[in-house]
# Entry
Amino acid sequence: MFDAGREASHPERVRSGVIVAGITETELSAADLLHDIGTAADGAVVVFEGRVRDHNEGMKVVGLHYDGYPEMADEVLGQIAGEAIEKYEVSTVGVRHRIGNLAPGEVSLVVAVSAGHRGPAYEASRFVIEELKVWLPIWKKEVYADGSTGWLEGQAASGPAEPEGGP
Amino acid sequence: MFDAGREASHPERVRSGVIVAGITETELSAADLLHDIGTAADGAVVVFEGRVRDHNEGMKVVGLHYDGYPEMADEVLGQIAGEAIEKYEVSTVGVRHRIGNLAPGEVSLVVAVSAGHRGPAYEASRFVIEELKVWLPIWKKEVYADGSTGWLEGQAASGPAEPEGGP
Amino acid sequence: MTRTFRIAVRLFAGHRESVGASELEVEIDEGSTVEDLRSVLASHPAIGSLLGGAAVALNRRYAESHVVVSEGDEVAIIPPVAGG
Amino acid sequence: MTRTFRIAVRLFAGHRESVGASELEVEIDEGSTVEDLRSVLASHPAIGSLLGGAAVALNRRYAESHVVVSEGDEVAIIPPVAGG
# Structure
């Protein structure tokens, strides 16, 4: 239900080269995407792993709760991945974001990009992350050592970036 | 012998944060470095995998032979990794380059960087690759479908970049 | 007399906690735009003060203020996002 | 009369194939610099024409042309590199 990848229930949304794009509630690792990312013509693979830090602004963080709007988040991730492929002419992209309760050190986000050469692979990888920071309907609440919690200040996604309403 | 990592025979060369830096003759994967890279304070990990492409400039490539000067390459990789840590203030760096005979799709290079935030992690990762393209004493010969071979044009490392003669 | 309809508005994160529910049902006039929906929500005691910075999604896409909300649309208020 | 010594020069990649050996022994004057060593190598039939673009490493570090080569140094000719 949460995966807009190859076995997605909405295949019309899956663009060529997007190996997976969606939200998950289970453990993530960059290693998960390494096997499927890339084609025989690709010389460069860039993988990004976002991990839960054990502190933020001087506060010790004991856990992070990610809330999300999964159905929309799947769509947004698919759109961003497809856009990365078109814009940077990379060959494959995979992106997964975890929601639920995460402990420090656990992986919240994985982005994998492959391309013929390294320049486009790095640029497309960075593009995917910068876009999802603006558009992905996911929110995080930090849990501190004393049991208190706080939603993190987000970035206002105040309207569509382009006519078709994409991210 | 080929690893200037934690179990290196020259521990004085291993800078804090360099988890591994060296040449290997065995199979590589970015997954190898994912476990050791990063600290509890790190929110971002960037891993680069260089893979053997099945073609180059219109020629079908059936294999790649990497020649190297392993003892010097270990030193150069350790220096580049240490420099990346100092220059970008990232927390851990690992880099391994394979030599010998590789088939298309196999991994020739892995670079892993962790940092508190993604900006420095991406920049340091790119820095390591750009530096080793200039300084690492490794050479590659392509093997084509018809059995012919050719050394690839390299980049002239025509002198030390800094007073201490580093890369 | 203008026909009205009731529509469920999905809430997330701090909004959900403030309201104490994962959705809110509101009644709007047929032909209402996203902007009209925001006006109706603005007078809601729990959510009204939280709308600044929030976006509206219709059917899982960000919607501009002039777009008309139709009966049966999936409507959500998207607080400033913080993924990654 | 200037004392001379013999020193092994390691070769790699295309250089090794051209020369047909992984090292070359040359005799140089005591006090010779990297530049002097290059001059000696330049007259070698197999390696001479390949030195343009190549660097010299002493004891596993790139060495500038004014550096003196000492007996027992690990010397290598580094063709333009092509890792990655």
Notes: The longest helix of chain A spans residues 70-88. Residues 1-14, 159-167 of chain A have pLDDT under 50 and may be disordered.
